[in-house]
Specification:
This protein has about 260 residues and is of the alpha/beta class. It has a single domain, classed as Rossmann fold (3-Layer(aba) Sandwich). The chain has an 8-stranded mixed β-sheet with strand order 3-4-2-5-1-6-7-8, with helices on both faces. The protein is globular, with a radius of gyration of 17 Å. Bound molecules: adenosine-5'-diphosphate (ADP) and magnesium ion.
Length: about 260
């Protein structure tokens, strides 16, 4: 049964997609079969970071024109990318039954994937929350700014209160160094745990990275360009910490129907 991992942030522009793509490829590089849903419908850009130009997107599958399988683009290291498409603003607010059917439709891919990544749209919209609440693991990407703290807190609170999510993994992006990133994490944890009965686990950090930025311009993910550089090693340790973090036991709709088992 695949493990489902949502990458969320609350705030946009904090590095969610960059981290999701490189984490997913780090897992693919050690032999995991990875499927990646770019659920940032309307603003999907994971394909740009991977250097792909998908001809089909999840839109055709949602509208029932094609099978979900036909929306898959084969990416690097066998990664299966399902793009959310661009400019599809009508997909941003999927109604409840469409979201339910979309989540269920991934059951058909269960036998061919070990890890299922979801790049969740920014903001605590109903779509974002339904993907987060349906996942085994939830990664929150945080930067050390009050706006990021505020939006990440809103996301954690909404997922906890509405979906019963209790376990969160946190990545600190654009940190000066490891010590500083742990300080940022502890500050966020203290604030969140004061009000919410949640468990936050620090799984790693990334510095401000020129290499990461230029990998985006070159459309070649950093962990593929150089798997021994500092950032790639940080992604390896992040991936290890993430896989050993506790899973959620959501009682509602979950990816791969785990709550029904
Ligand atoms: N650690 C980092 N160092 C330097 N630039 C970064 C880093 N993380 C993200 N960026 C840059 O920030 C911008 C937003 O990143 P992106 O991954 O698209 O964020 P999000 O998905 O949260 O909107 C991109 O231009 C990316 O190159
Ligand atoms: Mg993004």
């Amino acid at each position: 049964m695949p493990i489902s991992i949502s990458i969320a942030s609350g705030k946009g522009g904090v590095g969610k997609t960059s981290i999701a793509v490189n984490l997913a490829l780090t897992m693919a590089s050690v032999g995991s079969r990875v499927t990646f849903l770019d659920a940032d419908f309307g603003l999907a850009n994971a394909h740009l970071l991977m250097g792909y130009n998908p001809s089909n997107t999840v839109r055709e599958a949602i509208s029932g024109k094609t099978e979900l399988r036909d929306s898959i683009t084969k990416g690097p290291l066998g990664l299966q990318l399902i793009s959310g498409g661009n400019g599809l603003l009508d997909l941003l607010n999927l109604d409840q039954s469409t979201r339910f059917n979309l989540i269920r439709s991934f059951d058909t891919l269960a036998d061919e994937c070990d890890v299922f990544f979801i790049d969740v749209p920014a903001g605590a919209s109903n779509s974002s929350l339904s993907f987060v609440n349906a996942s085994d693991k939830v990664v929150i990407v945080l930067v050390g700014e009050p706006t990021s703290f505020m939006d990440a807190y809103t996301m954690v609170k909404a997922a906890h209160v509405e979906g019963g999510v209790k376990e969160f993994s946190v990545v600190i992006n654009m940190a000066d160094n490891e010590v500083h990133s742990k300080e940022t994490f502890n500050k966020f944890k203290k604030a969140a745990c004061k009000f919410l009965d949640v468990n936050l686990k620090y799984i790693g950090y990334l510095p401000h990275s020129r290499a990461l930025r230029s990998s985006i311009v070159k459309r070649k993910p950093l962990v593929l360009a150089d798997n021994k550089c500092r950032e790639s090693l940080l992604f390896k340790s992040m991936s290890k910490e993430l896989l050993s973090s506790p899973n959620n036991n959501a009682s509602g709709i979950t990816f791969f129907n785990k709550s029904a088992i």
